[in-house]
Amino acid sequence: MVGLGGIALVGSLTPLTITEATRQTEDKFGLPFAGPPGLASWSVRQWYGNTRWAYRQRRALYGAGQGLHFGVDFFAVCGTPVLAIGDGVVAAADGPYGAAPHNLLIRHTNGYASLYGHLQQRPTVRIGQRVSKGEPIAISGVPSGADCDTHPHLHLEIRTSNLGGTVNPVSLIEADWPNLTLGLPGEGLDFEIDLDNPTRWQNIYDQPVVRFGGSLLNDFGRPWPG
Amino acid sequence: MGVILARRRLVYVVSWLLLLAVMVGACGESTGTPTRPPTRNEALPILGTPGAAGAGGFTSPGAVPTNALPTLNLSPVAEATATSTAAPVSAPASSPVATNTDTPTVAPTPTVAPFQPNQRQIGPANCCLAFNFASDGRLYFYDKPAGSAIPATYVLDLASGQRQVLSQRFGLFSNDLRLVAVSERSSGVTTIEQVSDGVRRATLSNRASPTLFSPDKSQIAWLLRSLNQAGSEEPQLFELWVGNPDGSKLRVPWTLREGANLAWFSDNQRLLLTARDAANRRFGLWVVDTQAAPGLEASLIIESKGLIAASLSSDGQQVVYAVTLQGEANSGIWLAQADGSNRRKLEWTGGWRWSPTDSKTLFYIPARAPGETNSALWSYQTDSAQSVRLTDPAALPLQIAGDDWQIAPDGKQLIYRRASDNALWLVQFRG
To answer: How many other C-beta atoms lie within 10 A of the C-beta of residue B281?
Structure first.
């Protein structure tokens, strides 16, 4: 359904310096699609973190990301324009960051980088090009191996400055997040329960930072669903 | 004198008939009022009618049934209206038609305060996972309360707020909470157990697939994800398994792709699910008859791509389903008969639950429009196509985490998880 294919997660780009003061004074990021969510346009179908879908794919798709879903999946019709979530500079197109078949990486002045994955085609923006928040930068598609009838979506990550991990986009993007699912259910919208520690990571706001290459965080002894 | 008295009585009766006619007219009685998308912030024309559209409800025009015409033998009735500006209506204590007294009694009826929907927190922050209602009205959930070393499945008495342990096991329960299907990853099996004493009735080697009881718990079903997949991103292959809860008569009536939203019909024989056929050619909403002849079990009742959710009415006669990313005309929330006939697109987008008590009532919570911060509960009558707002988002803010809400079996209460802190809240939306 919603995943990543063949990810090489750590980049060689020079990390930017991030300070807490910088983060707090920067405007929040925006959403990667224009217009409100809707059943015909786009909606969130997988949260960041400890999702049920990620649990089932914790080794196959997300093993390098500690078993968690290290982005947010926005379902959208193939061909939907993708917008930059913030001002920045194009750092890579089809770089070694996973989310095949095509991806785009943008560096932001606040130190974070945004990665747009499962794009329909190689982005036409140039490396080094400055982009503005809300500017169309790519076209959404579907993961390699799937077709546009099977979970077409944009996989959006917000990476730490050294590209070695990801943070929860919910905390960094200004949006009415609970409303972006349109109130509908889905496996990617529910969180896997550790029956021995059932209250951990059960909220869209409370999800762990992912460090690529770290050990699985969700290899629960008593998971639900199993 | 007798003539005068007769005239007085006549005038009195006519006066009451006129008054009642005005009242009925004010109800906006109209069965033909078309449904339009609810505008969440608008103040709907209101005149609640207890017992009709729900006491304390915010009733749209036409929501008062035609059989609500009052008789003259009025009992004390509170015409519940949240914004009523009309003077309190005084109804005669007894029928003026039946009286033989010279001076009819026109005693004011005691006014009953209109019911106001309300809500209260019933569980602390970050508690009470996978909550649901048993058929007898008990709320149950899985939790590890602060200070407790052992997590367990609890039942909560909504009136007293007292909780007690139902079981230290967790899984999918039968509607009466007598059986539980516990799926354990470590062993790869699902065990069917009696809740009261833990006695094991069956052990299913189903790779710990969540196992669903039929309404009378005479049957079980699960979707088994095949190990033989072309790739993790490609349409996933499943087997649908059914059998008896003692583990006998297990069989696979259908093999499919991308199966989800599995639900039993009330006949304990048929199953509903969203899926594709194994050849990945036909997409949509399927009914599987577990008693049909081999090869004839699965019927495609709604053919559509992008079908992501579906659920059956309590009597199994109707189905509501959601279609995404299929263009403006086809994407939306749809209602149909359970054989796929009489499809019609509903004019709202949001999560829904069928009423446990009325198979023609659908509760729904529309997605919020830009700028709105709180949600509201609505009901929709499938026979009259009327929508009624049951809670006022300004007075009763609902901040629901995703689709995490349930309607109590009495059809008067809603339980939801608050988005900000995962606390559990109860909304009494009908008296």
So the answer is: 8
Q: Does B142 touch chain A (CB under 8 A)?
A: yes
Q: Which of B316, B336, B320 is nearest to B265 (CA)?
A: B316
CA B25 to mean position of chain CA atoms: 30
pTM, full prediction: 0.81
HSE (side-chain half, CA atoms, 13 Å) at A71: 26
Find out whether B311 and A184 touch, Cβ atoms under 8 Å: no
H/E stretch holding A166 reads strand A165-167
Please, which residues have CB within 8 angstroms of residue B298's CB and are 6 or more apart in sequence?
B253, B254, B256, B277, B286, B287, B288
The answer to whether A153 is a known catalytic residue is: yes
Report which DSSP code applies to B70.
Answer: P
Beta-carbon count within 10 A of B321 CB: 24
The kind and range of the H/E element at B334 are strand B332-337
Contact A140, A148 (CB under 8 A): no
Say what the ipTM of the complex is. Answer: 0.89
Tokens 């559209």 belong to B53
Q: Is residue B109 very low, low, confident or very high in pLDDT (cuts 50, 70, 90)?
A: low
Contact A39 B349 (CB under 8 A): yes
pLDDT digits (tens, 9 = 90+) for B383-421: 999 999 999 999 999 999 999 999 999 999 999 999 999
Residue A79 sits at the chain B interface (C-beta within 8 Å): no
- Three-state DSSP at B226 gives coil
What the block records as the tokens of B107 is 């005693």
Strand partners, A44: A74
Looking at chain A, how many residues does it have? 226
Which residues neighbour B60 within 8 Å (Cβ) at sequence distance 6 or greater? B33, B44, B45, B386, B387, B388, B389
CA B348 – CA B38 distance, rounded (Å): 7
DSSP string of B361-404, one letter each residue: EEEEEEPPPTT---B--EEEETTTTEEEE-S-TTTS-B-EEEEE
The predicted model gives B356-365 an average pLDDT of: 96
Interchain proximity B349–A199, CB inside 8 Å = no
**Closest CA in chain A for residue B225:** A56
Q: Give me the residues of B, 194-223, that contact A with CB < 8 A.
A: 208-210
Measured between alpha carbons, how far is B290 from B222 in angstroms, rounded to an integer?
13
Listed residue (B354, B401, B406, B357) closest to B380, CA to CA: B354
Report how far residue B33's alpha carbon sits from residue B14's, in angstroms, rounded to the nearest whole number: 29
Tokens representing B38 are 């609810």
Give the Cβ contact number of residue A32 at 10 Å. Answer: 25
Q: Are B258 and A149 in contact (CB < 8 Å)?
A: no
User: In this structure, are residues B181 and B191 in contact, taking their beta carbons and an 8 Å threshold?
Assistant: yes
Which element (helix H / strand E) includes B21? helix B2-26
Spatial separation of the C-alpha atoms in residues A27 and A108, rounded to whole Å:
11
Buried (b) or exposed (e) across A156-182, using 16+ Cβ within 10 A?
bbbbbbbbbbbbbbbebbebbbbbbbb
For chain B, give me the number of helices (H) and strands (E)? Answer: 2, 27
Identity of the residue in B185, B309, B401 whose CB atom sits nearest the CB atom of A184: B309
Q: For residue B94, is it left (φ>0), alpha (ψ between -120 and 50) or beta?
A: beta
